[in-house]
Structures
1.
Amino acid sequence: MSAPIGEGDAALRLDETVRAWESQWHASGFLGEVEHAPHSDDRGHYHWMIRLRGEEKDVIALWLTLRQRTVHFESQVMPAPEENREVLYRYLLVKNAELRDLHLAIGPEDGIYLVAQVPIGEVTFERLDELVGATVHYVDEIFPTAMSMGLASLYRRRPQR
């Protein structure tokens, strides 16, 4: 099933959805800042960045990119691993099979990312809320183990709060 091409007001509609979501979650303490570039980049894509507070990772940045047919969701779980790559990648592949809606991927500079592609028309308030919640949950679940494997000499898990 292919996603239809977004209409001319897709960026405005997505921004309204993000702002409605932001207004509901702002008082929760869970949400940091939401930024939006009002103009498209050189490829015609619009961008939003949602900063969230995590338990294991202090700040979880979630990028939303409005493309021609889809909204791309992307959040870095960890930078490029320097150690135990084979063990880490095996852990991530096993974990990937458990994930719903999002999946793990190797991204820019070999960092580990959670990503999703959602057709433009499916990004409702509820769907955005589900994807943001899943992002925070999965990053907090995966981050400490992945860091302990891939950056073992640099990472020390913080004590439980």
2.
Amino acid sequence: MHRHRLAGLLACILFACATGAAASDSLRVGNRVLVVGDSAATVSTLLGKPMHKSHRSGSRGASHGSSRRGGRVRASPGAAARGEQWQYRHNGRVIVVTLVDGLVSDIDERSR
């Protein structure tokens, strides 16, 4: 199981690097990787205290909750609209981690 998760994670990282995508399912932090589905405690351990936090309430038409597929958490389409966003500066970029029910649902890298 770990081998399949590692292979999937590697594929996501390579795809994000090849396409220059801003939002992704993972973020390298030193020699560790933050992934969608990790806990808020893991985010704090890897990135520290956020420089800014914002809370989002539910939006019209948003479906609520997350679904599990193959042991991986996939946030519902409206999850980012109703989650809590933690903002960081990391390696010259702004990182916004969205948490829903205490779990990472989205990782967004933005230029300053």
